[in-house]
Amino acid sequence: MATETTEVTEARRLRVWALARALKSHGYAVEVAESDPLLAVPAAFGSPVVVRCDQRAVCGGELWFAFSGGGAIAPADDAHLPDVVVAVKGKLAAQADG
Question: Which residue of 22, 35, 40, 41 sits 20 to 30 Å from the alpha carbon of 89, by its own alpha carbon?
Answer without folding.
Answer: 35
